[in-house]
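W.,

You were right to be curious about this one. When I first looked at the sequence I had no strong expectations either way, so I just let the prediction run and decided to look at it fresh. Below is the sequence, 82 residues in total, followed by the output.
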Amino acid sequence: MRQGIHPAYGPVVFRDRAANYAFLTRSTMTSEKTAEWEDGNTYPVVDVEISNISHPFYTGTARVLDTAGRVERFERRYGKKG
């Protein structure tokens, strides 16, 4: 691997603002904001609007759209092919 062409890869805290939840992982993202983590070290913080804790798909509150009704209405209006 060539040296000097890749961004620095290190620990970063991602903070979900919607759910007041944070997790520590490794990333190439950086930030001027910092936070002290549970281990006593200070890491850069990246605020995100949504994560797996607050996303409707993961929380089970996702709505399912009724596309079958739309398809049936289209077929009634324009007829089935075939």
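Here's what jumped out at me. The two ends are 56 Å apart (CA to CA). And, maybe more interesting for your project: The longest strand covers residues 10-16.

Coffee later to discuss?

I.
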